[in-house]
Design a protein that fits this description.
alpha/beta; 5-stranded parallel sheet; two-stranded antiparallel sheet; 47% helix; globular
Length: 271
Amino acid sequence: MKTDLAKKASVLFSGGTDSTLAAYLIGRRVRQLTLLTFEPKHVLFIENSRRHVQKLAVALPDVEIHHEIIPVQKNIRKILLSDLAGDWKKYGFNLTALVCLGCRMAMHAAAVIYNLENEIPVIVDGSIRYQSTVPEQLPSFIRRNREKLWARYGIRHYSPIYEVADSDRRLDTLGISSKGGLKKQFILFDTQPTCLFGVPADVYARLFYGALSGPAREVDSYEYSTEKYPLVSKVIADHFDGKNPGLDELASNLRMQSEKLSAQWKDVSHD
C-alpha cells in the first residue's frame, strides 16, 4: 500500500471491469474497502457482482474487504418513480436515458446512508468518459453531484478511472479479471448484473441521446437531477429521523475527515 488516503472507503460496485478497477485503485490507499452493489429488483443475476470480489481480495491482501448487496426498491419509488407521468411529459423520449440517472440517484441516496452509518469518508465509482453519452457519467453531472450530494454529507468522491477506456485489459494485466475480453460483453455479463431497463436506455443514449440531442443532453440532465435532489435529500433525512446520532452530527464527523483529503484523484494517485 503506497499511501493512506483514509482508513475506509466505499465503491459503487457493479462487479464490472470499470468498478472493479476503481475498487483496486482506491483499495491500494485504504485499510478497509466496502463494495456497494444495489438491488433495484429490475436486474437479473445480481450474484454476478460477487465474482470479482475474491479476485480483489487476492490482489489487495492487506485490505479488509466487504461486499454489500443493498435493496433500493423504496428509493426507486420515491425518487425515480415520484412523477413518472410528469417526467415523460417534460422530457419525452429522452426519459429513456434519464431513467438511468434517476435510478443512479436512488442508489446514491443508499450509498450516502451507508457511508454515514459506517463512518466512511470516501466513495469512488467506475464512471468513464467513454460512456458519457449516458447522463450519469457526464462530467457536468459528476461535478454537480459532488457538490449537491457527496460534499453535503461530508463524503469525498473520486472517479479514478474516468479517462480509462481499457479497464478489462488493465485487470488482465493485474491478474484480477475472471476471464479475458469482458468489455466486449453486452446484455449478458459474467461479472455484473443485467438491467432490464439499462440495456435499451444505453442503446438509446449511444445512438440518439449522445449523438443527436446536442445541448439538450446537458440541459435535460441538469434539470432532471435538480428536480430529484430534494427527493434524494428527503430519503436520507427520513432514514435518520429520530436517530441518535442524527444526520447533522454524522455528516459533520465525516466532513472533519474528508476535508483533509485531496479534492482531485490526480493529487492522490501516484501510479
